[in-house]
Amino acid sequence: MNRRDTPPEDLTEEDAGAELAALAEEIAAADIAYHQNDAPDLTDAEYDALRRRNTAIEALFPSLKRADSPSGATPGAAPAAGFAKSRHGTPMLSLDNAFAPEDFAEFAKSVRRFLKLGEEEVLRFVGEPKIDGLSVNLTYENGVFVRGATRGDGTVGEDITRNLETLDDLPRRLPAPFPGHIEIRGEVFMTKADFLAFHAEQTRLHEEREQRRERGEKVGPDIRIPANPRNAAAGSLRQLDPEVTARRPLKFFAYAQGASSTPVAETHWDYLEQLRAWGFQVNPLSRLLPDEHAAEAFQAELAGQRAGLDYDIDGVVYKLDRLDWQKRLGFVGRTPRWAIAWKFPAEQATTVLLRIEIQVGRTGALTPRAVMQPVNVGGVMVQHATLHNEDEIARKDVRIGDTVVLQRAGDVIPQIVSVVLEKRPATSEAWRPLTHCPACGSHAVRPEGEVVRRCTGGLICPAQTVERLKHFVSRNALDIEGLGEENIIALHNAEIVKSPADIFRLAPHVETIRQWEGWGKGSKKDSRKIANLLAAIESRREPPLERFIFALGIRRIGAQNAKLLARHYHDVAEWRAKMLAATTIGSEAREELGSIQGIGPAIATELAEFFAEHRNREALDDLLSEVTPLPAERIGGSGSPFAGKVVVFTGTLEQTSRDEAEAVAERLGAKVTKSVSKKTDFVVVGADAGSKAKKAAELGVRTLTEAEWRQMAAQG
Ligand SMILES: [Zn+2]
Predict the structure, then answer these.
(1) 367 CA distance to ligand 1 centroid (A)?
(2) What percent of the chain has a predicted confidence (pLDDT) above 70?
(3) pTM of the predicted model, to two decimals?
């Protein structure tokens, strides 16, 4: 960002050109994030600063102004990278809003004024429920669907033809007669029920990804959890892979026309009829109103039905029925003079917050949830609201006993908007985060820089047991065959297996298990199943140390870190003792742990927190009474001069990278650390070595040149 501190007048032409290119890209990305995603990356101030900088540079270097310059583009959603642009035949509309009967009356009056209509003329409107989804423009050539695009900035959208082709509600061919060329518009949306199921599935995938990430395993791209059906529909349609879109439950209602080579109807109502005849879904609640005064009753009627609909609506769109009048009225910019969106008031209600419940997720995440006196919000009884996290509770200063304002807007899940401070009880106290897990009583900690508080009792916390057990027996951990999720849940529910150690104590329960469906009650095959499982478990009583450490499921200790720990500490007793000692901050053991190449202080803290919880230690010792982990192999054998030695690399190596040299040393059985101490056996000194070489000399630690290191390494 230093570059940005240079005043524009001091920039060279070359720098100015490069910066304009970078700004165009950044501003476009921010526009997309703002208009098309749910999470803007920049604050308004940062965004404005970028645009100002762009304008200032363009003013000084007019010849460098780019074709895609942000200053020349309409602010709004430019097409995202990955999709071709698609220009609409006629612009897609943006409607004016009405919020009250007076607003609508004023709108109707302005229509009359413009058309110079007398009182005797009847104004008929078509009222259509306004669905909060994603507007799209469909192009048909000779009756065949050829192209589909998002609304974009109203003039140019993204070509999402292949994604739209996956929708069941979209006719690929129109039955004749049809205009040679026609654009048909409508809304793609997700029903509430489909959204809730999709939301739950995305949340689960997100949690699983987080778990894998914490264990240091490779993870795919981030899993987005949509906030509302609109975001879910938009995200689903804007997938680069149409296969993904095809799996999403998307619906489509047609409601408007774009360009057309020949007129289709004389009224909007007849046009909707034609859409139905062509096979489109048209919202069945749409209605032709006999005159402008019928709008208010229709608005109230739909407001009453709103909560019971299986999709979200946020108002009603009223369109003048006569198309010749629509044409005369025309547009102001992209806003038609012949239509208006009459919005419903936000669904709000006040109630009393009874308590804040903490839910423990399967990965140990503690999530606060508000429990309130049940209240009717827009026709739905609401008792719970999400509070997201501790910071949000603090920011809103939500307290138990408070009267709170609840809202269901576009979001299906209700939110606490604000606190009615005048009604706050005099005795109320600020809410304090729990220090212990409500499910198991272990310490709950919130790592620095993270928003989520977590239970540290991974091995014993009932909320996490199933996940932990699944991990414990998984392929890279103890690899016990025959213990899938279903079986773990069954054994857990029967209270036979509550902790990993219990897996090794199944034998006394065999008679009980044999009574279960599919476990030997009937067939011979089933009874072999139990025998096979017991044999698989027995064969795992002596796991390699690295698998054992990994199997414990300590946060951030993935297979790779478990291997580093196993190599460094060699056997389980040593490891356990050192981890206990490392719970003391500043101890020698803690320093040693943090200085292991690839571990570092943050991971050392996670390990220390795990061992600081006495319940974890008890569960670990219980487990060690059943299994005996094998000491880690020293791959280099005792033949290498580095086997079992502590080695430090410093300075720049000429022949290999430092990373590679360290890996070689570890293969030879060395412990590689970052800092030099009395315990260091060798310091390999490369070019431009600094304080570590000096310290080695002071402590009398043997130093090696790169050449000497290579020679000695070759021996082993
Ligand atoms: Zn817990």
Answers:
(1) 12
(2) 92
(3) 0.51
